[in-house]
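User: What would this chain look like folded?
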Amino acid sequence: MSNFNKNGWVSLAQICEERQLVIDAETGKKVLRPAYFSSMNAMIEGAFQFARFFEEIHQKGKVYCSISPDVFYFNLKNGAFHFEGEEFLGEAYVQEPDAAEIEFTEFLAPELAEALAEEQEKLLSETEEQETLETFKECYSLETDRYFMAVYLFEYFFHTGSPFEGKKMVNRCFLSPEEKELFRAREGRFCMEPGEEENIPVKGIQDKLIQYWNEYPEILQKMFQKAFLDGGRLRELRPTEVDWKQLLVRMAMDYKSCHCGFHGFCYRLLPKENGTFACPKCGKIYYPLTNGMDRILLAEGEKLYECQTGRNPMDKDTVTGLIVENRQKKGLYGIKNVSQGVWRGFYPDGKIKDIPNGQGIPIWNGMSVRFELGEEWNLRLMQQVEERKEDEDEQTV
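Assistant: Here's the prediction, encoded as structure tokens.
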């Protein structure tokens, strides 16, 4: 029997309900308390650990042979993850769902729902002809895990029910959960699919989804749209566990916490005419360093991480760079290298200098920097935003 202490940890149901039943330390009585992550970073960390869990079991040839969401727990303070369902792990493409025992829910991949429905029809059939028919068996697989992951993370981020639970589903009378999920498997439409009108979220029922959908960046919205395209039936389009990890790293880098109290994703920053961005609360300026596809926003107090400058694209925790003020010139900031790698700085006047640990490059319009892998990142604004002295080779920041 597990010794796991659930105090301070929450399940998916508690995340969606935004409250949990806990034992009060003073009275010893059970009381309802709010259940929110301490920060967006903690919530992203929990999702990242959830995706990493599936990556690790898949690397061992295992899959989650269940559709229960109740064996995954998250720590509200830091996003730590705990799994309580070792007995549900099995070999990939081997174990079939038990048609007599499985509960039909939104976590059941469409191919499993249809195969189980056919199996149940076969079991109920009394004709000799149908008894000899062989029903195609669907097993728990990497693809069913990826469907489960997508549904789980949808409910995790939006505190809502099924991603297909829109107007079309709500207004339809179902005789049983099986009938409902079979309809979803065959005709379901993602309620947040672009251009979708028949199955849009219903006010009064899906208020959390309506509220939270636009709080998150477009990259998360597009990931779910991809996962549930065509009702989620296209197995090859389901995001992998690595896809989710990459997305969550980007979200972690995209989330900003300003000293003034502003917290939010970068889309909430105010774009300026010269290409910079400003905090909507205090006006702090962010300078966009870009490689042509991605960007790193540089501002006082910001940090750079291994996933941005180093060799591990999944390491969102190791700090490799600091934005610090120049000791000789107040108001001039630079990127200080605190990694073990050597960067290369390209100055606006054409000078090129190596930037080892402890040194840096000023944040000037027209500067470029090559981090450890040699990819070049540039700062190109519409107009000059910093006055430069002739002594542009100052590296100690």
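Residues 258-378 form a domain with the Tumour Suppressor Smad4 fold (CATH 2.60.200.20). If you want, I can go into more detail on any region.
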